[in-house]
Design brief:
- With 391 residues, the chain is an alpha/beta fold.
- It has 16 helices and twelve strands.
- It starts with a helix and ends in a 6-residue tail after the last helix.
Length: 391
């Protein structure tokens, strides 16, 4: 109740703070859903910010620590937040209020501006009169309202099921707001068309491949790196390596860490969050990178390939666009322990046939340099087509 009162007060005390620039200049605005921890989506936002050089940055809420903000180049940047900031890290429990938060951002925006949004949830819904809005779609937006509800709506979050019809209607409507949609993979582009009935341009996200170097000599272990969340299916990987009694190193943190440790044998090592240099070393020395989840794109498998390390992955989602089956890794079709076991058995038989140089070359297609060129050119093209003066 206390949080509800605080939210009500902030909504009703709302004030517009945008400063308009000269009329012949285009005000550039960057909007993202929220900032909580540095991951794949945040790396994309970092590069979009560098391309756009925005006058203002908006997000529903930022609970990101200073170290992560520094990685994004935002440590000393003013980030405009909404009334949801009073909830702190518990902001996700306010899911039904997200549309209201987006509306509050829209009220702050000047007319005739350039909006670039990064959306995996609701940021695509921001709007401003006579403005050009380009949305980079980071993932299947609000996928927990469209699919996999049983996986996400558990415990107290089950109350969210009551709002599903409303949220679906809002999500469908807000997806029509941007002038242009850019998808992070063909997989997501197909999903956008199926759910929203809109076409989108595919520009794969940036991977900082220059941080990684191939290593010919490998140690005797496999590796997984990423968030420890249910949809990642790390439990499947652990059960497979338990049965095979092979060494697996798991890099990352998440809500399932305690549970996953409880089902792991001593052959499975959890190393938690690691600095980028340590992760690069672990990826480079591994026999293979293993993943069993369905990723909309999946930056980690590209990073592994940048190290010349093969990828063993479930054959669905973004990996179909980043991993060349039989050349830079192996894909398995059954998301089961048995399916992964068969893939590992096949990998061990043909392991020596993988060429680190060829694997690295595949990763270079997804470099930050490639992303910046494609996305900046896309923005410039749409500005010209819209007759915006961005002098």
């Amino acid at each position: 109740m206390l949080y509800a009162i605080r939210i009500w007060k902030q909504v009703n005390n709302f004030s517009v703070t945008v400063t308009h620039k000269e009329q012949n200049q285009l005000v550039k605005v960057l909007v993202c859903d929220w900032l909580d921890q540095y991951g794949g989506a945040e790396r994309v936002i970092k590069d979009i910010r560098e391309i756009l050089q925005p006058d203002k940055i908006y997000t529903m809420v930022s609970v990101m620590n200073r170290d992560d903000l520094e990685l994004m180049g935002l440590a000393d940047t003013k980030i405009e937040q909404t009334f949801l900031k009073c909830l702190g890290k518990r902001f996700r429990y306010a899911l039904p209020l997200f549309p209201l938060a987006v509306r509050s951002i829209s009220k702050r925006l000047p007319c005739n501006c350039l909006i670039v949004s990064s959306s995996h949830c609701v940021a695509k819904g921001v709007t401003s009169k006579s403005s050009l809005h380009i949305c980079y779609v980071q993932a299947r937006n609000m996928k927990y309202i469209w699919e996999e509800q049983d996986r996400y709506m558990r415990g107290v979050k089950k109350i969210g099921n009551l709002f599903m019809p409303y949220l679906r209607k809002y999500d469908l409507r807000s997806a029509q707001v941007p002038n242009y949609l850019v998808a992070n993979s063909q997989y997501v582009a197909d999903w956008i068309y199926a759910k929203y009935g809109r076409r989108s341009t595919v520009i794969h996200p940036p991977v900082e491949i220059d941080r990684f170097s191939p290593q010919e000599v490998k140690d005797d272990y496999f590796v997984y790196a990423g968030r420890l969340e249910p949809y990642k299916r790390v439990d499947l990987i652990i059960r497979t390596f338990n049965d095979l009694n092979r060494k697996l190193i798991i890099v990352g943190e998440g809500s399932q860490r305690k549970y996953l440790k409880s089902i792991a044998t001593e052959q499975v090592e959890f190393v938690g969050y690691q600095l980028p240099g340590i992760i690069a070393s672990l990826l480079a020395k591994a026999r293979a990178f293993v993943m069993a989840g369905e990723e909309d794109f999946g930056i980690a498998p590209v990073e592994a390939q940048a190290c010349g390390t093969p990828v063993i992955a479930y054959a669905k989602g973004g990996v179909l666009e980043t991993v060349v089956d039989g050349k830079t890794g192996l894909l398995f079709n059954e998301q089961t322990v048995e399916g992964l076991k068969q893939a590992l058995a096949k990998f061990i038989k043909i392991e020596r046939s993988f060429d680190a140089t060829a694997i690295r070359k595949q990763a270079e297609k997804f470099s930050a340099h490639v992303f910046k060129n494609k996305f900046s050119n896309f923005i410039e093209e749409k500005i010209r087509e819209s007759h915006f003066n961005h002098g």
